[in-house]
Amino acid sequence: MAHHLASVQDAMQRSRRQELSDAWRGFRTAARLGWQTEANWADPVLFAIYSVAKPVGAALILVFMVDIISAGRADPALRAFVVIGTALWSFVMAGIAGLAWSILDDRERYRMLKYLYVSPNSMLLLLLGRGSARIGIGAFGALITLGVGVVFLSVPFDVTRIDWLLAVVCMAMGLVGVLAVGIILAAVCMQLRQDSWSYPEAVAGALFLLVGAVFPLLVLPPAVQAVGLVLPLTWWLEGTRQALFPGSVSSIGGAGSLWQGWTGTAAPSSWEILIALAATTALTLVLAVLCFRWAEHRAKEKGVFDMVTGS
Question: What are the tens digits of pLDDT across the range 209-266?
Fold first, then answer.
């Protein structure tokens, strides 16, 4: 009897290992396909230049706007605030829009979504693999933008002052939060027609306003500030700024901010940032999984996987 139970347990362990191996192979293949699709089989050097031109250009435009408006008397801390927010936002844009565009690409352009759905791997796993290429490109653009800000725009940076624990934890949870928002948007786009190509950028633009990317939340009405405080991206940006540039301008606190009215403190501490980031990320992730499962079931029932809404 004991020998039989041991055999059953061994078989179950082998089965689980095989499932994990199959899942990893499916994710890796989807990621490679996503990269080849994004790069369009272009020369790596040319593609790298193209990938970083947009985020760097956006950062330069915002910095020059701040300098012109302030007649050259802008606080260097404000310049750093704008550069950091713009750099990190290229990562957010790639994560949020990349997953939704993967759905639209496979359904409308390549007309392969129905074949991906009936493959042995999870649809969500394949979607994450397809979107990982855009996320990698966005992360590369963010690093280049930060480098340009430090070298050419006099953004104060001291590697010895970095809070590495806060930086690593915030980036890990921030990636999960970005992916969760991207999954929700992909679930929505799965139900829509071809004209939903513009929706990811529209949503990202709205979030750009709400999460304190290039200006503090205190300039917004209190009700809008409250919306920003329940979004994981707000706390991720705040935590990453404070980790890489300790003492920088807070995107959440400040005199007259909703945060100060609620807590009586000028800005959240590192532990408060981590707790809020963990809570909002967990809630967003649960919502994302539920939304995607519902969207997947509805798409199957309505025949959306077989549908091509454009010409």
Answer: 899 888 889 989 999 999 999 999 999 999 998 898 887 888 998 888 899 999 989 8
Give the amino acid at 7. Answer: S
| pLDDT band per the 50, 70, 90 thresholds, residue 43 | low
275 falls in which pLDDT band (50, 70, 90)? very high
**Dihedral of alpha carbons 242, 245, 248, 251, sign:** negative
Residues 6 or more apart whose Cβ sits within 8 Å of residue 84: 146, 149, 155, 240, 241, 244, 245, 248
Q: What is the CA radius of gyration of the chain?
A: 22
Side-chain-side CA neighbours of residue 8 (13 Å): 5
Torsion of CA 244, 247, 248, 254, to 10 degrees: 140
Cα separation, 263 vs 267, in Å, equals 9
3-state helix, strand, coil in the chain (%, to 5): 80, 0, 20
Beta strands in the chain (DSSP E): none
Measure the CA–CA gap between 231 and 227, rounded to whole angstroms.
7
Each residue's pLDDT tens digit, 61-84: 777 776 777 666 666 677 778 888
Question: Which DSSP letter does residue 130 get?
Answer: H
How many Cβ atoms sit within 10 Å of the Cβ of residue 280?
21
